[in-house]
Every structure is written in structure tokens, then in C-alpha cells.
Amino acid sequence: MIRPAVPTDVQRLMEMGHAFFIEAGWDKHADFDEESFAFTCGALIANGILLVADKDDNGVVGMAAAGIAPAYWNRSVLTAQELFWYCEPAHRLGLGSKLMKELEAAAIERGVVLFSMSAEEGLRSEALSRLYRQRGYFPMEKLFWKSFGREAA
Q: How many CA atoms lie within 13 A of 120 on its CB side?
């Protein structure tokens, strides 16, 4: 079952958030801060979209989140950006697509006009690009990051 997250899910979400953080390679550039992640989850529960995939026998095994904001170039256009979308490896077959579909539905329900998804470079980025295109997404930007931290030297 996919449902909105509630505050009692945050501890479990933190475990998956940390796993995703490492899998995506962010750990090469910064530390995962549990307090910050918990704060973000609370803000998403209150003002964004935070969904969980809950399997009765296994508990919460997946999560997806998006932040919502007016477009900087036209505040009447509501946009949403996927922040994280993760399923535990043993539960990925089909569950990820269901989470994505529900994330999109929640965005539409909140009046979002433009929705963006991201694919970390090297983290199944080509497969995700194909999936996004199949679901009607189109490329608009490519993000580049510069680290002034761990890998800057």
C-alpha cells in the first residue's frame, strides 16, 4: 500500500534516506545528518509530498518525496521537484513505478503544473532517462555540481 507518510514513519525513512544517500554517491561530498533529514521529512509531511510504500509483512520499504513551489518566472505556475525516490533493493520490481505514479498523482491533486524528476549520474541514469521519457517527461536542464568540500582538494 502506498500512503502519505506520518511522523511515526520518520525513523524508518531516515534509514532508507541514509541508504539512498550512499547509493547515490552523496557520501563522497558530505555527511548525512539525521536531524536535518528528520526536519525535511516533517516539512514535507506538512507542506510537500512524502509518500511511503508500506508492505504489511515488511513494513515501510519505499519512499518518494517532492517539494512544491511557485515557478520563479511565474508564481501562478505551481511546480514540484522530486527530492528522493527510493525502494529497498529487494522490493524494487514494480514498486518504484507505483510510487512514481502516486507521487505524480499527489502533485496533480495539489495543483502542480510542472513536475521534475532527477537521475543521479551513473545511478541507472540511462534507464531512468528512458523511463522518464516513456512517462512523458522531457529534458529541460542538466545540473552540474561543484564540491567545495571533501573532493575539492
A: 12
Composition of the chain by helix, strand, coil, percent to 5: 40, 25, 30
Whether 62 contacts 99, CB under 8 Å: yes
Tell me which residue has cell 532517462: 129
Residue pLDDT, tens place only, 70-111? 999 999 999 999 999 999 999 988 898 999 999 999 999 999
Cell representation of residue 39: 526536519
DSSP 138: -
Residue with cell 512523458: 136
Distance, CA of 149 to CA of 83 (rounded, Å): 22
The yes-or-no verdict on residue 58 having pLDDT over 50 is: yes
Confidence (pTM): 0.89
